[in-house]
Amino acid sequence: MNSQNSDGADAPLLPKSGSRLLSILGRKISLQKLVLNFPHRNRLGIRKPKLAAWFIGAVVLASSPSLARTQTIGTAQGARALITSSIDEGKLVPLPGNTRPEAVPENDRGMVADGFPMAHVLLQLRRPPEQESKLEQVLDELQDPKSPEFHKWLKADQFGQSFGVAQQDLDTITQWLQSHGFTVNSIYPSRMVIDFSGTAGQIRDAFHTEIHSLNVNGAEHIANLSEPLIPGALAPAIAGIVSLHDFKPRAQHEMRNSTANFTTGSGTGKSP
Predict the structure, then answer these.
(1) Which phi-psi region, left, alpha or beta, contains residue 267 (left: φ > 0; alpha: ψ -120 to 50)?
(2) What is the pTM for the complete model shown?
(3) In the chain, what is the straight-line distance between the N-terminal and C-terminal CA atoms, in Å?
């Protein structure tokens, strides 16, 4: 459902709009692979290249410590807690923008079994608005040759401490996931993504959406048919869910010469 990092664990795909930030990190990464796996990513607030930084903190900086330098961001403090009321499972709100356009009745082949495994689902979190403003400022300084902070990269844990979700909120969300039977695999160093695994039945119980089998143009897929729902108390700190489906990101361009013959890594000389 996601790409895999060097440790074999699933990692979220980055938005194409993150190319500017990737360029200042000095990394040469194929932009075809940097597509955020949300069908409506703008609804989740990822509208500017700089706001892709929490994914960069989780993936690029975490995997490339040699790029990072120790940096102190003035008097930057951890984020304030956004979850301020007790969780009431009877008061639910939707997470918009978390369904696939292919998940329509004409493609539906029925609900998958409750025991169907849902591995490495990624919960995208949300930081407070004031943290977003601080992040914008820091990213401006990183790219400004006149700034004393120019190219003074943050390590992944520093990024998380300065711009990640409050520990109190992480604990609350983690405990809520576990209360529904999910296994919490990890919290990304950026403190903006929680990796968890479970079953389709647990997804239905916790997020009130069913995972269905789909047939799209002859290809078999799975996806949720309706927007996930979560307790309203959690909504301020949760932006969306990645990987409730198995659709692959599509390339952002088409080859001009469709008859070109490229050699694959296996040396067969056949088109991929």
Answers:
(1) left
(2) 0.67
(3) 20
